[in-house]
Amino acid sequence: MPFDDQLRAETSALYADLYQLTMLQAYWREGMDERGVFDLFVRRLGSRNYFLACGLEQSLEFLETLSFSDEALGYLDAQDQFGDEFLEWLSDFEFTGDVYAVPEGTPVFPDEPIVEVVAPIGEAQLVETFLLNQITFQTTIASKASRVVEAAGAGETDRLVADFGMRRVHGTDAAMKAARAAYIAGVDATSNVAAGQAYGLPITGTMAHSYVEAHDSEVAAFRAFSDLYPETILLVDTYDTIGGVRKTIDLMEEREDDVHIRGIRLDSGDLAELAHESRRLLDEAGFEDIMIFASGGLDEYKIAELLDRGAPIDGFGVGTKMGTAADQPALDTAYKLCGYAGTPRMKLSAQKSNLPGRKQVFRQHEDDAAVRDVIATRGEQLNGTPLMDCVMSNGERTDAGASRPADAIREHAAARLADLPDRLRRLDPEVKDYEVVLSGAMEKRFNATRESLRGTMTAEAP
Amino acid sequence: MPFDDQLRAETSALYADLYQLTMLQAYWREGMDERGVFDLFVRRLGSRNYFLACGLEQSLEFLETLSFSDEALGYLDAQDQFGDEFLEWLSDFEFTGDVYAVPEGTPVFPDEPIVEVVAPIGEAQLVETFLLNQITFQTTIASKASRVVEAAGAGETDRLVADFGMRRVHGTDAAMKAARAAYIAGVDATSNVAAGQAYGLPITGTMAHSYVEAHDSEVAAFRAFSDLYPETILLVDTYDTIGGVRKTIDLMEEREDDVHIRGIRLDSGDLAELAHESRRLLDEAGFEDIMIFASGGLDEYKIAELLDRGAPIDGFGVGTKMGTAADQPALDTAYKLCGYAGTPRMKLSAQKSNLPGRKQVFRQHEDDAAVRDVIATRGEQLNGTPLMDCVMSNGERTDAGASRPADAIREHAAARLADLPDRLRRLDPEVKDYEVVLSGAMEKRFNATRESLRGTMTAEAP
Fold it and tell me: Maximum Cα–Cα distance for chain A, whole Å?
């Protein structure tokens, strides 16, 4: 059985920072079992204009099945930090809380809860690491991929974007989840066969330079591959790009009735110039329907530049820079206690305070476009569409939290993205003017909680 | 069973780009089953002065166990691209090749093979995606972590570095492998309990702000936690850092005989200034042995800056920026065909050519320090230490390829890093002057292969 260690770890409650477990034992020892409320949110936009929420599905799977195996308990026992009675208690542990969340594929902004966990405080604390890990990463990639899709105009034209990132993303789980997140954000297909299988995504691919090199000639490679895969895409830049295009044309002319390829792929050099020249040669030969695909170090900025130069490119293979979100490989997410035992809580650390108490977010519209989000206290009824649903109740998924196919989430994302003001969907990093405000009640609660904490601190001061 | 899709994917040969499978079928149909040689190497240093090779262990595990399950074959069958006979052949597929590699924890430079796969070409091609995925990511993180360790002076002083990255790295596999890679690079411990269990790494942790906030007062939280964990580290910045330090001192004075904590953690604000002030207060109270730990957005640059300012910090918790290698989240790795059927092969694409044929790398020393690497043809005997071992033969791991504990790899890394010229281990990104040269025989082969390819292209030209 391969990857034994990894599998064991991923299906185990040990998928946590050590302090989650030491704090869990402390809460248990102190008899602190009242409900805590934790918000998972992003602190700052960084170089994004919005985030596309993603990762809830795997978070709920984790919460549903969380338990400590005998092996996990044995490992903890060996650490000399955990008592026998506590380990016995852990052996029956399960997550019994409620979860409120924004549906996957919804655009969100800083300070808005993506997920709110309401559970006995030790339970809510334990799951921090996994939830942050999955939601941060998947939201990071969905947000990046959404920009790539916008830059390619993939929603408005026939232009295609494929995820080619599997080889240089951060490990196996990243490859799976990045393919899923990119598809949700509007990418059309992935090269990742395992992700295709697991999530029902369209899979795609062309050929590698090595295949061309292993043959006695480029033409021999093209002939063999197009014989086997009649609608394939030939990689033309192994030795000399324009030479490769000419050979493709010769091959098609030579065997007009037998072989029809779908397109060619350019993977190096000046892609705009090569695309123009390739298009000209193909069109002159009467192959106007042969598509031109481009790949090689692409991201939303390079795609925008190529299209600005009028490059006649019909599809982009985008890999490493999208799959690692290279310009912003992590979002500044936090999972913060905002209530315990019915009382709002918050942190006052320098530049890291958070909003106290339970919340709802209302998205308000004018003329069919979103104009403002209001972060309100839970229970307030404001104008606009509430973004958060109850997705888990007493540890069980609700109807709103049921697993949804990637296609459905992708449609939701397309609709919600279309709802944003156009300026946010441009690449310009200066566009940060979407209005996110606190409701009057939230403002009041924030001030009251801060004052009350300052009072406590003064009373405590030595 | 949670994560079912993911587990299935990771233990499956479908963990590949689609084109690996279509090329495999093409090779099979064409009867091309002679041995191909593929090199896995990094093209450019980018913002590193060296790379620390990592990820071989999981690559060999994958190769040893690679097979197509019935479910995988069923999925491929449903794609309408694969013939029945081929799928039948796949059902008995196994990796039968040889693998040569640099041991994990060895510093390497651009163009030097980290792994060389010699196998029937379809087999060698199929495994590209997994090998690139694991070795790129793990080498990316080990190379980054090595810089963090150097900046902290962790090898030369008692100063500690802990990996706190689990919550914002790219998924579950990344969290596991990043903890391992960082430990190999010299990081002392990880917060990741699952990685501690899987790889035998030391685990560590402190407490969270939420724990402090859930209590009626900061003092109550400190008291409860230090009762339960006598050598704990208290997080002092939830409300006001210096106030938190004073409360820690009061607590220790109040209960001198019962409680001894190990240290305090600062997680926000001006860490250098707060460390100076905290140290002064602790020393004045006679607590010279209480350590000061710092965390919060750290990387090698911030650590160097803090130490330049004389910050009396005894340990660093380093998270997101190390675990995502934020300044260079992927290395420019390639897996390139360099031989087929006994003939050297290479690619001539613009700026992406590679070295033909099988290789060995010799590291040459002067005065006990490495001064030069020579990339030679396999079989040459040059001065210096050969870096590549045969780690797999006919699909079975050799003694040199046997699984090694993380501790042993870490020791190897420390020794090989100490062997590098001092200037390479500084943060200065301009230090790129380590000499990597081709042997005379390699130079000759490179030129001859290029000429021969150009000849072929001319002969083929329309």
Answer: 91
- CATH 3.20.140.10 domain locations along chain A: 30-64+96-141+333-460
In chain B, residues 334-373 whose CB comes closer than 8 Å to chain A? 335-337, 340, 345-352
Q: Which residues contact A257 (CB under 8 A, 6 or more apart)?
A: none
> Which residue ranges does chain B devote to CATH 3.20.140.10?
4-141+328-460
3-state helix, strand, coil in chain B (%, to 5): 40, 20, 40
**CA-to-CA distance for A217 and A225, rounded, in angstroms?**
13
Class in CATH terms, B142-323:
alpha beta
Domain B4-141+328-460 homologous superfamily, CATH: nicotinate phosphoribosyltransferase (3.20.140.10)
Residues 104-143 of chain A with CB under 8 A from chain B are: 121, 125, 128-129, 132-134, 136-137, 140
Residue B231 touches partner A, C-beta closer than 8 Å: no
* Three-class DSSP category at B333: strand
Reported ipTM: the value is 0.95
Note the CATH number of domain A30-64+96-141+333-460: 3.20.140.10
Q: How far apart are CA A279 and CA A306, in angstroms?
A: 14
- Going through B93-165 in order, the beta strands assigned E by DSSP cover 98-101, 107-108, 115-120, 160-163
Q: Do A19 and B203 touch (CB under 8 A)?
A: no
Q: According to CATH, where is 3.20.20.70 located in chain A?
A: 142-323
Confidence of residue A3 (pLDDT cuts 50, 70, 90): very low
What the block records as the tokens of B304 is: 């160097």
Q: Give the model confidence (pLDDT) of A179-206 as tens digits.
A: 999 999 999 999 999 999 999 999 999 9
